[in-house]
Amino acid sequence: xxxKSTPAWLWFVLSIIVFQIGxxxxxxxxxxxxxxxxxxxxxxxxxxLSDCNRSIFQDIGSSKASKNTxxxxxxxxxxxxxxxxxxxxxxxxxxxxxxxxQNAASxxxxxxxxxxxxxxxxxxxxxxxxxxxxxxxxxxxxxLKNSAEKNRLGxxxxxxxxxxxxxLNSKKTRIQQEKLAEDHNVDGFxxxxxxxxxxxxxxxxxxxxxxxxxxxxHPNVPFFFNWCPVRWINVWMGKxxxxxIPTNRNRAIIxxxxxxxxxxxxxxxxxDWLSQFFHHHNYIRVNNQPVFLTYTFDERAIxxxxxxRQLAIEDGFSGLHLIAGRSAMPDHIYVPxxxxxxxxxxxxxxxxxxxxxxxxxxxxxNSSIFNQSMFYPFPLEYVxxxxxxxxxxxxxxxxxxxxxxxxxxEVVGVITTFDNSPRRPNNxxxxxxxxxxxxxxxxxxxxxxxxVYYQTCCLEQRASDDRFVAxxxxxxxxxxxxxEPSDVYGTRFLEAIREVKAQVAKMGCDGSQVPSESQGGxxxxxxxxxxxxxxxxxxxxxxxxxxxxxEKKRKKKVRKGGE
Length: 563
Hints:
Shape: globular
Structural class: alpha/beta
Helix content: 40-55%
Distance between the termini: 137 Å
Number of strands: 16
Oligomer: single chain
Strand content: 5-15%
């Protein structure tokens, strides 16, 4: 039986097709990798064509197609139709590619955002010191339940809804907090850290939920510590159960003290306790240095911080990234109103902590123990307006018209609202940023937007690991500073965080898209908080002169019609 030879024309056609497929395979391998695309494309258009040609090749290889000229012609015709189909799909492919690029750009912007962190109060659990001072099982829940429905201005005092009056020792509660944070793009917590160098009760307080987190892993969110290097006194709550004399702001009872003349061994005990957290995978670090914030500056704490840093280096870290909290206005995004009262001006000049105060000015640039400063979100009466994005940043992002003072930008603080009525008699409470819920949330949102945009676009481009926005607070219910779901605000504080971050990520650093209410005025000066204070001092001729208690008492008597 004679075997028929394959026609030469068929071999020729097959060789061309094989060559074409070889080229397509190379293109596929190349274009499947986004890194090889200068525009970040994925090569989806080549995949459409190659899939089509692969099908045709299979038909050519079949015995029916190879022995039948008409069938082969049909295959070639199908190839032409397939190519036309691919062309028709090109617009769809290009649209997908465009969306992919947009998503990539959005993801890039999102990774460029500062980390938005919530200050967390770890008090809601049974604690020996609270039991001793205030009674068995005391927490701020007791104060909140006993408080009036409304504050002295007539606005409702928020109560928890979704999470209820929880116990932080409950794993279920901490998982719920974790989910709330994740669902609303909160990047982590700043836990208050209470460690006292006290002779009667040394060591940590209000720490059990944090230790529980090490055991069960919840809340599973990034975090760092905010050490409060202060003493506890009773004026924040009134009369402790063991005291027998009346109390007021001028006659405070010390509940827990700090003794600064401590030994290296005591500091080592402190570090050994901290170390278990510093090595946790969720602990936030900058350049392999655990971040450690001090709630307020106290010069007496510097030797302790210096020793803690040394111990961190011996423990395998590159040091500690120390942040000093200060009471001040945020730089550049806040300009005081022109009609600021004399009382508020004097309060600003008298109480504001300058960089010099916390030893982070130019004089201390090479000697300061701190890496970074933080405008701590205290309820400051002289910070009453909403923050705005400065005009120079709207016009030209990432090109500040000043030399940046430090390697790390100042952390911006944003406060939700403040009302410590649950902790005091109604008529003695301090109230800040109170009003109808919609207005409170509107101001919070504007402040948060300006803070996130400023940290994203108004500073020199840098790595994002040292840029933070700190919100006060996640759950300070005794002062109405709570982003957790409440009967007054619902989840709207949390929703604002998610929405603002998405808004800034989407717009990028296009100043023309910044809402008009968040745009700084063209005449706003390019001044830091310290420079604004210095300007007030120069204009008013004000001189700070600390009064003695005797002098204060004499003036008070004069005001009441005495001497």
